[in-house]
Amino acid sequence: MSNRDADIDRSTALESLRQFLGARLLTGRSVREQHCHTTTIIASQPPDAVTFPQNANEVSDIVKICAQHRMPVIGYGTGTSLEGHVNAPWGGVAVDFSEMNRVLAINQEDLDCVIEPGVTRRALNRELRDTGLFFAIDPGADASLGGMAATRASGTNAVRYGTIRENVLALKAVMADGSMISTGRRARKSAAGYDLTHLMVGSEGTLGLITELTLRLHGIPETICSARCSFVSVHDACQAVIDIIQLGVPVARIELLDELTVRAVNEYSQLSLPETPLLLLEFHGSSSGVEEQANSCGDIFNDHGGSQFQQSVNPEERNRLWRARHDTYWAQLRLREGAKAIATDACVPISCLAECVVRAQQQAQKLGILAPIVGHVGDGNFHMALLIDPDNQVEMNQATHFIEWLAELAVDLGGTCTGEHGIGQGKMSSLRKETGNAYNWMGRIKRAFDPHNIMNPGKLVDLSGLSQQVTIDPSEIASTGQCGDSEATDRYIEARREVGDAKISRDTGR
Question: I need a labelling partner for 490 at 20 to 30 A (CA). Which of 55, 77, 285, 468 fits?
Fold first, then answer.
């Protein structure tokens, strides 16, 4: 617990919630543990209770009771987030949105819809099937759309359709005092006031709870074609991706699987792909447009030593290939029996992608970590699953070191410590290093919206010691944001580590 525990009136809060919700307040151990699982190194931390509201007014009443008694409030969608977002480090109340799962409106002519936060991605697309429209953001898991908005999710289609940020037009939310706000309208653009919509998107439940979303939709393409191509090395595959993006080929998906992941996928999904680095692609458009896109990519692949380039418009073949891609997490676990997969991600400018991926592979090998890679490489984002023995402290320490190292490498190459997993508990120190003095302003925003720190506390920003900073000599970071100077980058990372992990400002020279 925390020294703030004495400020929380748990028994009175839970009794008030029980009188209000009845059987929709659960305190059993198993249900509490189901609402706090994490795939980080951080241990699971269960809430004191789980609530199941059925509408926005009930969410408001739950938050008002919790605010009165200083009880933490943690939003919960389907539990697929990856950085400890749903943990309850100070206990509190989990707000499970699974019963707020209605599609409220589909505006076919305007290509948008209005939904409750518990609607999942697949459920929405089933509802849209007969309209000729679809919701494009596909993070792989069948996540709730409220959770996707809260963590600023993206996924395999982001290279063509953007992240959830670009696809949320407006939202409604319950704030830390229980009041309800609406951040926008259905218009496609607005210059009216502060952009609270996109402040809430990615706030990880630390500012308020999303209770309604207005989402952008897209027309189902006339033709969808999948393709794959194998490469001698990850570097060659990444260079091919760079050329595709720089030449403006409008791919809908372009995914990288390294040789370890391909081997795992072959075994798990019973495929027979060449066990070398692989690119999976998808093209959307007219029949002639899709053919032109595929041929352009084929020519680029030839320039980078690609082989066995195959394409298909057969839905069964396409679905089988992408189902295997989405099952990579479970496939990767088979590479080391009994291991736990610690997931991490990074995102860099596309020109730095090959360098970052190759150096990440080399560092994992140096530390003796089995770390297969998959990536949404069309936007410079890739993921690594560190397969470690959770009972081996040496391996746990190595995993921690590697995650910190990768985050710092990505930032030094002009990228970010996370492209889509978010910050949660797992990357708070990395966010501080990446954003410098802006981190203090994030803390000020948090305090302004949530003065008693009840909304998902202990995530995204650490409110203690925000004014403490350490600056380092600007000469030590001369290579910051540049690719190609690996020795300078390593010197910079070591210099930052020496002056302290949690208190370094990149806002140098002031």
Answer: 468
Phi, psi of 172 (to 5 degrees): -120, 150
Q: How far apart are CA 91 and CA 454, in angstroms?
A: 10
Contact 279, 229 (CB under 8 A): yes
Run of H or E including 345: strand 340-347
pLDDT in tens, 277-314: 999 999 999 999 999 999 999 999 999 999 999 999 99
* Of the residues 219, 240, 267, the one at which a domain ends: 219
Rounded to 5 degrees, φ, ψ at 246 are: -65, -30
Q: What is the DSSP string of 238-258?
A: HHHHHHHHHTT---SEEEEE-
Question: Nearest CA to 263 among 281, 253, 276, 250?
Answer: 276
C-alpha closest to that of 53 among 39, 64, 68 = 64
| Cβ(322)–Cβ(278) below 8 Å | no
| pTM of the model as a whole | 0.88
Residue range of the domain that includes 484: 360-369+392-498
| CATH number, domain with residue 236 | 3.30.70.2190
Whether residue 86 lies inside any domain: the answer is yes
Cα separation of 18 and 13, whole Å? 9
CA distance 327 to 100: 28
Domain co-membership, 208 together with 238: no
Q: How many CA atoms lie within 13 A of 368 on its CB side?
A: 6
The alpha carbon of residue 444 and the mean position of all alpha carbons in its chain are separated, in whole angstroms, by: 24
Residue 282 has phi, psi (to 5 degrees) of -145, 140
The amino acid sitting at 137 is I
pLDDT tens, 426-482? 899 999 999 999 999 999 999 999 999 999 999 999 887 665 444 444 443 444 566
Give the strand pairing for 253-257 and 278-285.
antiparallel
Taking 90 as the threshold, does the pLDDT of residue 417 lie above it?
yes
Buried b or exposed e, range 332-367, using 16+ CB within 10 angstroms: bbebeeebbbbbbbbbbbbbbbbbbbebbbebbeeb
Measured distance CA(197)–CA(182) in Å, rounded: 9
Q: Which tokens in the block code for residue 456?
A: 């998902």
Q: How many CB atoms lie under 10 A from the CB of residue 250?
A: 15
DSSP helix/strand/coil, 382: strand
Q: Is the distance from CB of 388 to CB of 396 less than 8 angstroms?
A: yes
